[in-house]
Amino acid sequence: MVEQITIPSHVLAAIEEHQRHCSDPMAAFFYDLPALEAHGRAVKAALPENVELYYAIKANSESAIIDTLASVVDGLELSSGGEIERACNSATPLPWVLSGPGKLDSDMRHAMLQGVEAFHIESLGEIARLQVIAASLQRIQPVLLRINPTLPDELSSRLKMAGTATPFGIDEAQLEEAVAAVDSAPNLSLRGFHIHAMSHQKSVQRHQRLLSFYLQRWPKWRALAREPKQITQLNVGGGIGVNYLHPAQQFDWPGLCRTLGQQLEAMPEPPRVRFEIGRFLSAFCGYYVVEVMDTKISHGEDFLVCRGGTHQFRLPVAQAHDHPVIHLPRYAHPSNQAEYQPWTIVGQLCTPKDVLSRHQPLRGVAIGDLLVLPLAGAYGYNISHADFLCHPRPEQIFVGRASERPAPEASHVQSELVE
Question: Second label for 206, Cα 20 to 30 Å away, from 56, 299, 302, 308?
Fold first, then answer.
């Protein structure tokens, strides 16, 4: 199936300008910052009253991405010492929390000294370690306990973070012990609970049921504390998926938010809910652009060999899908008269796994043309093995500053998006 889309004119102009200045075939990332801000504002506006939005910077921790979203989100979710440095160096400081298993003592101490809002505690052992550090700094540290609950089978997704044996969070069977341990720690203050059970969730109905499950459990979890009235926060993580294969069919975020709002209104003592979203915020603003260097036939299969590859854009391999492709002819050759033929798009690596997309129907492709892989703003370059084979790292071009320009206009140039 082929969908017709338009590329925003300012992104198309940036791609063309960059290619003109390349002495070698190009491979680069382009990020549409005005589109990122507009999408972030739409996500934020759909939230029910008193529900917060944090950005999980693991999706894309580039400074320009963080700075663009800083005017939109309520805070940041971090998971390493390196991410602490990224957040603290942001042009617009925001509240932030520290999550993740295997936290270093040095990172936890540094986080406290840098003003961390709260820690998401992942284990009973982490409670004891954090108490020692907080006591040494003579401060009372707010914390949330991350729960790994038992989940009904129908609430699963392709990437489970909870509801099964994982290194994430505290088994719900140990939650009473964990709450008692925090209550007994003189330098820790329990403020609530954190659950991030599913990642890359594309079913809004399943995610609605998942949030309902959390809210049903909330009174029971809260009652475990010595002073339940102080337990007010329920962090429901993120995990909202992106439909890479059918870009026009995305997650019904407004529908999820409407249902959540109704559920919270019906509760006598609702928690203050917080989302920590990464992929669903930043994915849509990014484009990975590669230049066709060679064409070949091998055992009956047609290949386009491109600059770059999965060492720069690992997402298709990580998600086990054939990424959508936009064909941008470099010159005015008669592509519209050519017939479609299936191409497998590969990069420069010395491995058969270096495949960005298989059997994509394109027409009139020539050496020097550009192939654009959209939806590349999250878990693309930042999860890639960029130093493999010692190829140079790709340039990252941040197009526009959201605060300095009006909303982008679409170009009249049509390109072909192939699923």
Answer: 56
Strands 301-306 and 340-346: parallel
Q: Structural domains in the chain?
A: 2-31+284-418 (2.40.37.10), 95-277 (3.20.20.10)
Active site members: 350
User: In 207-322, which ranges are E strands?
Assistant: 233-235, 272-277, 286-298, 301-306
pLDDT tens digits, one per residue of 371-384: 999 999 999 999 99
Which pLDDT tens digit goes with each residue over 107-126?
999 999 999 999 999 999 99
Residue type, 7: I
- Could you give the 3-state DSSP secondary structure of residue 192? strand
Helix, strand, coil share of the chain (percent; to 5): 35, 30, 40
Q: Name the β-bridge partners of 143.
A: 119, 190
Would the CA dihedral through 74, 132, 228, 176 be positive or negative?
positive
Q: Is pLDDT of 288 > 90? A: yes
Q: Report yes or no: 46 and 268 within 8 Å, Cβ to Cβ.
A: no
What's the CA gap between 15 and 360, in Å, rounded? Answer: 22
